[in-house]
Amino acid sequence: MSPTSPRGAGTGLSAGALPHAEGVLLVTSRMRRIIEIDLANECAVVEPGMANLDITRAASPHGYYYAPDPSSQQACSVCGNVAENSGGAHCLKYGFTSGHVRVLEIVTPAGKIVELGGKATGAHGYDLIGAFIGSEGTLGVTTRVTVSLTRCPHKTVTLLSAFTSMDAGGEAVSAIIAAGVLPSAIEMMDASAIEAAEAAVACDYPAAAAAVLVVELDGPAAEVDAQIEQVTELF
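Above: the chain's sequence. Below: its structure in token form.
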């Protein structure tokens, strides 16, 4: 039997989508239906080729979204996210794919269809989903995924601050976390990244900054307002 390499959209950077030279590429990109949006259980059942961002697009009219957000989320597939345990800019607060998958239907190398997990949260027993996610298709082929949906935050605010050095920016990050503030995302750019961004999109970052820190806060409006004051003071 020829080696078989399962593949979603093929957007990954870790070479997980590359097949064996004499093998078979098993592509799931045409399996992209939403089977169910289950608001009562705050989850969605989707086929493996479903694009990450399309889950959010389907759930957003109901006030929900799918939290894991790789940079390629417009194109990357859910099964690829499962294979790589994908994260994104918001994984600081919301975690990786493994924290948002409730049920996996897989086909084992022996050809057996197996269902792992359950819709209910807090299931007991061995964490077989945790073992499967991140295994890069070596344990089986994902054919259906049930993912948790997250309620859209009431308020989202992005703060930007410039620093005279990378060390100063790093100290600000440490101070924010030490103060008990958990941003939904933190990104820091050095002078080279700032220069490249300006050349590409003219984002008008502060001139001569050695580092720029971008902090996103989300949650209930009153909580976010309090965090804005706290983070600004720490900046």
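Residues 221-234 form the longest helix (14 residues).
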